[in-house]
Amino acid sequence: MLKISSDFDHGNMRVIDISTPSDIRLEISADGAADFFQWFYFRVDGASGDALTMHITNAAKASYPPGWDDYRAVASYDGETWFRVDTSYRDGVLSIQHTPEQASIHYAYFAAYPFARIANFVEGTKADPALRHELLGETLDGRPIDHFSAGEGALKIWVIARQHPGETMGSWWIEGFLPALAGDSDAARRLRSAATVHVIPCMNPDGAARGHLRTNAAGVDLNRAWRNTTMDKSPEVYLVREKMRETGVDLFLDVHGDEAIPNNFLVSASGIPSWDDVHQTRFDRYSSLLLEASKDFQTRDGYPVTPPGKANLDIANNYVAETWGCLSMTLEMPFKDANVNPMPAVGWSPERCRSFAREHLEVMTEIAPALR
Q1: 177-182 long-range CB contacts below 8 Å, 24 or more apart?
Q2: pTM
């Protein structure tokens, strides 16, 4: 018997009609206390061998409709191996066509990374002797805000991911970065010698568990809360920001995903009031080193440059750059594929995120001497 469900960790999909496998009707739910929606993650049971066509009928009202253009959904039988399936967007409806080969299969906007996986990853990573773990506090739903650090160097490097919980590529990236940071490679040893590296594996555990796209339990977009954060609405940002004030910051990287642009790119803080040639030189150097290190990176596609003095200081990247005068960047990865190095079967994928993270570690090692 065909069944579709999403009432589990990280799930999001509302069933409208499943009476006909070739004409299933679905809707994505909004973020609880906010109107954002685009993330979806659901399970189909009892459809092995059936040719499914699943229509997401409210796709045109999603937060970023251009993200559906040339987009292909992902599917997995085990939550580890994800592959792309036929997807089309016409007349405001996103349609997914696939014939499952097993009795149970998951479909998602990008490879899913539930809170349970976050918790398991944190617990396993705690055991690494090269890393130090600290609990900064709790979210509004009572989930932990975990902080790792490594190294003893004078430079202070901060890496955070998953402010927007539907941008799961951030967690897959962290899965590559933290083990590499703790590893025995020459780059990791040099970086730990030059810097103390601080990592927040997941900024928004509540949003991840609730199946949200952009917000926490209170409906707050954490990446619009850095200047005026409060413990009652955005404790995740407040506690991390206070820890930054304790340590200082010489390099900041905020890891995200972008719905529309089919490439990896970096966003500078060029619109902050204090932007100058020193800021620009550091950003250009990081970008050029990453171009050398990674065939998945490019600098042609990205966001328009913010005019001088017009940066939104509620955004983490801009707030940190202006507050500490440091190299501060947002990394955006695609929900689709990286057109500079396309892999149609998987698109941008968990393994590619992990590999890309290891390349960033090498770049951080090389740029460390120029950070002060």
Answers
A1: 177/357, 177/358, 177/360, 177/361, 178/125, 178/131, 178/148, 179/125, 179/128, 180/357, 180/358, 180/361, 181/130, 181/131, 181/150, 181/361, 182/125, 182/128, 182/130, 182/131, 182/150
A2: 0.98
Alpha-carbon distance 354 to 87, whole Å?
25
pLDDT classification of 247: cutoffs 50, 70, 90: very high
CA-based nearest residue to 194, from 8, 5, 368:
368
- Evaluate whether 89 touches 135 at the Cβ level (below 8 Å): no
**Closest to 266 in 3D by CA, of 372, 359, 198:** 359
Question: Cα–Cα distance between 129 and 329 in angstroms, integer?
Answer: 29
pLDDT digits (tens, 9 = 90+) for 283-298: 999 999 999 999 999 9
Catalytic residue among 27, 332, 359, 362: 332
CB environment 207-228: b (16+ within 10 A), e (fewer): bbbbbbbbbbbbbbbbbbbbbe
- 146-190 pLDDT, tens digit each: 999 999 999 999 999 999 999 999 999 999 999 999 999 999 999
Q: Is 362 a catalytic residue?
A: no
Average pLDDT over residues 239-249: 98
Domains of the chain and CATH, by start: 3-108 (2.60.40.3120), 115-370 (3.40.630.10)
User: What pLDDT, on a 0 to 100 scale, did the predictor assign at position 372?
Assistant: 87
